[in-house]
Amino acid sequence: MNKLNYFFRAGVLATIAIISFACSSPVETYQGPVKDKSFYGPQAQVYELPSVPGKIYYVSPDADVNADGLSIETPTTIEVAISKVVSGDAIVMRGGVYRTGNLTFNQGITIQPYRDEQPVLNGTLIAADWSKTADGAWVTKWDYLFPGAPESWWNRQHEEKFTPLHRFNNDGIFVDGKFLESVASKKDVVEGTYFVDYNTKEIYIGTDPTGKTVEITAFRKAIMRTIADVHGKKSDGRGPVIKGLIITQYPDTMVHIDGYYPQKVSSETEHGKDVIGTVFENCTFSKCFRIGVFAIGDSMVMRNCKIIDTNTEGLYLVASSDVLLERNIFANNNIERWTGFYPSSVKIFNQTHRVVCRNNLIIDQPNSNGLWYDVGNRDGVFVNNWVENIGNVQKFKEKEQIWSNFSGFFYEISSHAICAGNVFLNCEQGAFVLNSANVQLWNNTFVNSTASFGRNSRGDGNDHFGWHINTAPGVDARENHILKNNLFYMQKDLSRNSWSAWQPADMCERLNKSTLTAENNNFYVYEADELENGLILWSPAKAEKCTDTLSTPEELTALYPEFSTESKLFKGISTPFLTNVSANDFSLNAESAGKLKAAILPEEIIKVMNVSDKKASFVGAYMPE
């Protein structure tokens, strides 16, 4: 592709992205993160036949493989339809369970349900032939096995005692829809567990299968949008439009949108161009032992989907630009509780640009990060999301504890991002900015959750992950962060600092200026009378380990006169400060709002938050009524 054609197409795509961002949200004016959880995830639909320039193929689970599929009366199989479709065609699926997988194509097609019927792609087959062993387990022969291994960088010496090697195999065994946990040997098999003997191709379970439905994984993937030649066709460069499907119970990546995966520092003109414009709407992806959806490609949209019960990542987005994620549910990643593996329900990775995440529900992640931008990303936007129950809040109470296991919003070795108008509720760490530059946190509400800015010497020498660190701002350039108009609320049984600016003691002389360029108009409400662990953990400081614990906003002002001049701390409150904490209504009541002075939102924050008042100023994620 010559440069003129590339930049023309890039301009068109950018225009489409801007139009989508401005017009697709049903909330015309800013109202803050939506508390009603029915707002998120798949919505009931009655689908009209798709308006496409090509053919429509009809498929059903029990179709005749020899049928042409060109009418509702003569459906064909999904496998036949996938082999026939060309760019601009559509597949309309009748309801029911399709036990199939590895559906591979390279054309820009539409896949959707017929009317209000519910098609389900299921990666298992039913296992009905079981024999009881002398040890009281049950065994069956099985030909479709998926052995696996950890990545080469996984620290086996340290982690194996927490995550035994058999957990990295990808087989899934389900009894009445509930997955069993693997064990190391036949003798370890008990109720609720299984063992795979890869030498004899036998599977042992400890649950009596009598009268139950036992399903075992048999297909590695559900859908593969490849960039290679397939079915006698070359890739047309267009992403699929996939609507209304349930995709469940696969051992590996369930949906894979392929493309060039940079293994070096790469310009945005070099990647994300193989498959453009993929759309997922009203889909559910569940019960997967690796990745729910893996995608490379610019201008992707994921809207009103639900990704739940995945293992390494729910959504893994790589080297893509101008992407929109909105009104989705991301829940319960790392179902096998792997350690040393950096799980995240949403991972935005490897030199993405302008990935917008807004109005999503990120919830119930006891063993995983919520959403993580990692490795060379730019211009990320994380706005108006509801983030709840990330990690273990009680585990993260110790004084001077910085490095949490899991965070709701994590921005690492990247630059330029806005995190604004979000609710972080009961998060081990709400927002974490690490070895990055130019990140702005505006108008977030942190309830029993913290924010943190960290930097260290990673990047001075060789790195465990090679070239990754070269995509980051340099060690001396991890600064220019902003923290304004945020509300921190800590209930009585928690004693945590609200936020921290951290660096190691041995870098105190070298990095002797604040990593923040602006901090003010932040408000702290503690139900407790005293702050056992202080309010702010601050570095660089003229103190032991280069870190000082500050107990009031005024102490920060004493160090940096331009900081915290309008911030306030309220302790031991006897009257409600927020409207109704027990009902998750975190808006400020009228009396409380009158005690606070907020900064006027800058134009770029007003734009991404979709605030209609161009001179708006308020604290936290909700505008006072």
Condensed summary:
The chain is mainly beta and 625 residues long. Helix content is 8%, strand content 33%.
Write the layout of secondary structure elements.
Blueprint: H1 3-23, E1 56-59, H2 78-84, E2 90-93, E3 96-99, E4 103-105, E5 110-113, E6 119-122, E7 124-126, E8 131-132, E9 138-141, H3 156-159, E10 173-175, E11 178-179, E12 181-182, E13 193-197, E14 202-205, E15 214-217, E16 223-225, E17 241-243, E18 246-250, E19 255-257, E20 279-281, E21 284-288, E22 291-296, E23 301-303, E24 306-308, E25 313-318, E26 321-326, E27 329-331, E28 344-349, E29 353-358, E30 361-365, E31 369-374, E32 378-383, E33 386-390, E34 409-412, E35 415-420, E36 423-427, E37 431-434, E38 437-442, E39 445-447, E40 451-454, E41 481-484, E42 487-490, E43 499-502, E44 516-520, E45 523-526, E46 536-538, E47 548-550, H4 553-559, E48 568-571, E49 578-580, E50 585-588, H5 590-593, H6 603-609
Parallel strand pairs: 1-2, 2-5, 3-6, 4-16, 5-17, 6-18, 12-13, 16-19, 17-20, 18-21, 19-22, 20-23, 21-24, 22-25, 23-26, 24-27, 25-28, 26-29, 27-30, 28-31, 29-32, 30-33, 31-34, 32-35, 33-36, 34-37, 35-38, 36-39, 37-40, 38-41, 39-42, 40-43, 41-44, 42-45, 43-46, 45-48
Antiparallel strand pairs: 7-15, 8-9, 9-14, 10-11, 10-15, 13-14, 46-47, 49-50
Q: What does this entry look like structurally?
A:
This protein folds into 2 domains: 3-43 and 244-609; 124-217, Golgi alpha-mannosidase II (Immunoglobulin-like), CATH 2.60.40.1180. With 625 residues, the protein is mainly beta. Strands 1-2-5-17-20-23-26-29-32-35-38-41-44 form a 13-stranded parallel β-sheet, with helices on both faces. A 13-stranded parallel β-sheet has the order 3-6-18-21-24-27-30-33-36-39-42-45-48, with no helix packed on it. The model is unreliable at 1-27 (pLDDT under 50). The chain contains 6 helices and 50 strands.
